[in-house]
Write a structure and sequence with these properties.
The chain is 21% helix and 36% strand. The chain has 162 residues and is an alpha+beta fold. The protein has one domain: Nucleoside Triphosphate Pyrophosphohydrolase (Alpha-Beta Complex). The chain has a four-stranded mixed sheet with strand order 6-3-8-7, sandwiched between helices. It starts with a strand and ends with a helix.
Length: 162
Amino acid sequence: MDEWFPLVDPSGKVIGKATRSECHSGTKSLHPVIHLHIFNTKGELLLQKRSSNKDIQPGKWDTSVGGHVDLGETVEEALVREAGEELGIRGFVPEFIRSYVFESEIEKELVYSYKTIYEGELCFDPIEIDEIAFWPVERIRQNIGQTVFTPNFEDEFRFLFR
């Protein structure tokens, strides 16, 4: 069964709904997503290697947590849900970074980006994620533009560390 996502205007106001497959089919229907950048106390950034079974950017290293906002769900609820589903974390304190529109060849997203510091236990869903690792910022910089990361992550990283 297909998931339902809200369709939004660039300010985030809900203006309709569409299925996941519709949103990822090239229609460029603007839909909201969350990103959470998780740092440890050493300043390293947790990245996830997207499952090779993903329909978008399979096998690429990406944001610590990323996911869609479901129809009827707030951005904050989606952030907590996705962090729990993807990495098993609860009780973190998110700090809002920014929201922006990201467009690829097949979709258009309104991204709500957050960051947090977290030192607790992590466990990931091997269906969604192939691997997780904390990366020193300098190692990330050395790999930018080398097709290691998703384009969206590279854009956010440049903003975080300008």
